[in-house]
Amino acid sequence: MNKKIKITEVVLRDAHQSLLATRLRYEDMESTLKLIDDVGYWSVESWGGAIFDSCIRYLGEDPWERIRNIKSHMPNTPQQMLLRGQNLLGYKHYADDLVYKFVETAKKNGVDVFRVFDAMNDERNIKKALEAVIEVDGHAQGTISYTTSPVHNYDVWVSMAQKLQDYGAHSIVIKDMAGLLSPYVGFELVSRLKEVLEVPLHLHSHATTGYSTTTAIKGIEAGLDGVDASISSMSMTYGHSATETIVGALNDSEYETNIELDKLTPIASEYRKIRKKYKQFEGSLKGVDARIITSQVPGGMLTNLEKQLRDQNAIDRFDEVLDEIPIVRKDLGYIPLVTPTSQIVGTQAVINVLSESRYQTLTKETQAILKGEYGRTPASVDKELQQKYLDGKDPITCRPADLISNDEFAATSNKLSEIIKTENLEIELNDENVLIYALFPEIGLNFLKNKSNKDYFEDAPVEFEETNNLYKVVIDENEYFVDYSNVDSPNIINEGKADNTPTKNIAPTGKATSINAPLGGNIFNIALAEGSSVSEEDTVIILEAMKMETAVKTPVSGVISKIYVNEGDKVNPGDPLFEVS
To answer: What does DSSP assign to residue 168?
Structure first.
């Protein structure tokens, strides 16, 4: 009897997160859900990862409604989500009670399979989430976030897999987010894991380096029980191996998927049309990017990194950032690059490149890694850098969540309730809304306030009409012609060539020193008021840029004579923030 290989389809989550910066709207995927449900997949990854964030930050969609709708149209197929362990879907650790509440609510809304990982591969940060999934009768899948470094080897991965199995995981997955797992290394790794595991073993691998399909086949030969893939029209480059390729490669072999290729054709056809609508969010990669073997940047991070650099008017410095990423990763203890650490390392690398000196400015999240707030790093962090930001304090060595009061959900609910009453908001105080606010306080509250105002949200897909090398872009009924003959530096013809030179963030104006935004983003917090006395290196403004918080400090002592922005404002690189006289 042929061995059954379980296939997980990722087009509804990781495929568009990797290829289209997580911008695919539910309205565009709905027509394909019945087709996908009829295929016979082991599971469909449709939620989690950056979906929740993107829904409330950019799309104006309720993420809870999205998973409910998907589940209602796909009653025959288990729905799968990617869960960041103690981080849930945010960028910091949450208390155990909030983890349990989130998992319980996700299960009620339609999630069946929970792929639980930790960006540090610190098993202590995975254990509670796995226990929560088991408690609500979900499928708990423990995750190895695969990476390479001087401190990672087969023994490390085997030990981690055994711990996850001991925690009660129903299956284990090798999550190869940057496509670093080569075919023969993959064969050896799977062989060693299968020697010690009693639960099924799956593989999730990105195609960025060109390894993924061959690695999947070699892994299956070594004993893999399941693999992830994406429908062909939403596959490869930053994404994953094509579903049709994996299924076809296993036909007439000792393995079978029980999936008919004919059932995949109409799905691929629909997503071929849908993808054109989101062309503005595509990265520039057209084939394999072997640089990733060194930089280890995951596919989803690459497309977002390109967009972030364009937002900072610095796309011409993309290669510099790729070169900087391994340096930052080493200084932070060879952490794997997977959300949120990929964003933390990537954003810090961008800031390092755009600043006058490396680590001139550290994001709040980079400092948190140095302090131990994310957990145990695979190797020691740079001690000099760590001491600079610890101010003589000892780093955290326990499980970080042990330091968080275990009443976070109730406290957050009370806080949101008070905001609703004080501001007289028409927001229902239910578990789902409290969780939105808990995970993303500022972004989440803005979403809840503007949920019915679709004009508030950014990045709706625009329509493209190709004319030679020009595309007609229609935004708010205005037409712009964009020259995409050079995809790295698109020129808006009726606006003149884009300026890719970042503006200096310090500019003397008379007797005052004006401090400008070093990055584009949102004003998260204004720490000091006009008239406040400041010393050099005092934090005046917290800027949320590229989903990270960056402190904007004064480079001189004096008095804040002018603040040009308000909390919640959006700023571009070089916009004036405040003056010190």
So the answer is: T
Q: What six digits make up the tokens of 388?
A: 């600079």
What is the rounded distance in angstroms from the CA atom of residue 348 to the CA atom of residue 546?
10
**H/E run at residue 201:** strand 201-205
Rounded to two decimals, the pTM is 0.83
Does 283 or 528 have the greater pLDDT score? 528
Listed as own residue / partner, the contacts of 493-500 with beta carbons closer than 8 Å and 24 or more positions apart are: 498/313, 499/313, 500/313, 500/314, 500/315, 500/316
Tell me which DSSP letter residue 124 carries: H
How many CB atoms are closer than 10 A to CB 287?
A: 10
Tell me the β-bridge partners of 283. Answer: none
Contact, 333 vs 379, CB < 8 A?
yes
Residue 140 bridge partners (DSSP): 114
Residue pointed to by tokens 């959300």: 339
Bridge partners (DSSP) of residue 145 are 175
pLDDT band at 496, cuts 50/70/90?
A: very low
The vertex-275 CA angle with 83 and 110, nearest 5°, equals 30
Per-residue b/e over 490-525, b at no fewer than 16 CB within 10 Å? beeeeeeeeeeebeebeeeeeebbbbbbbbbbbbbe
In this structure, what DSSP letter does residue 177 have? Answer: T
Task: Judge if the upstream peptide bond of residue 340 is cis by omega within 30 degrees of 0.
Answer: yes
Q: Could you please report the per-residue DSSP string of 52-121?
A: HHHIIIII---HHHHHHHHHHH-TTS-EEEEE-GGGTTSSS---HHHHHHHHHHHHHHT--EEEE--TT-
Residues 227 and 234: their CA atoms lie apart, in Å, by: 16
Q: What digits encode the pLDDT tens for the residues 330-349?
A: 999 999 988 788 888 988 99
Lowest mean pLDDT among 7-11, 139-143, 388-392: 388-392
Average pLDDT score over residue span 193-203: 98
Lay out the sheet containing 470-475: strands in order across: 463-467, 470-475, 478-483, 491-492
Mean pLDDT for the stretch of residues 195-219: 97
Task: Determine what percent of the chain is predicted with pLDDT higher than 90.
Answer: 69
State both tokens at 126.
């995975």
Q: Is 544 helix (H, G, I), strand (E, B) or coil?
A: strand
Q: How many residues does the chain have?
A: 581
Instruction: Quote the strand ranges of 390-520, DSSP E.
Output: 463-467, 470-475, 478-483, 491-492, 506-509, 512-516
Determine the pLDDT at residue 546. Answer: 65
pLDDT in tens, 350-382: 889 988 889 988 888 999 999 999 999 999 999
In three-state secondary structure terms, 176 is strand
Distance (Å, whole) CA 148 – CA 162? 20
Q: How many CB atoms lie within 10 A of CB 397?
A: 9
List the structure tokens of 169: 């995981």
Give the span between the Cα atoms of 85 and 129, in whole angstroms: 6
pLDDT of residue 39 exceeding 90, the answer is yes
**Tokens for 28?**
């565009």
The Cα–Cα gap between 132 and 96 comes to 9
- Which residue, among 563, 57, 581, has the nearest Cα to 307 in the 3D structure? 57
How far apart (Å, rounded) are the C-alpha atoms in residues 505 and 493? 28
- What is residue 135's predicted lDDT score, i.e. its pLDDT? 98
pLDDT in tens, 44-103: 999 999 999 999 999 999 999 999 999 999 999 999 999 999 999 998 899 999 999 999
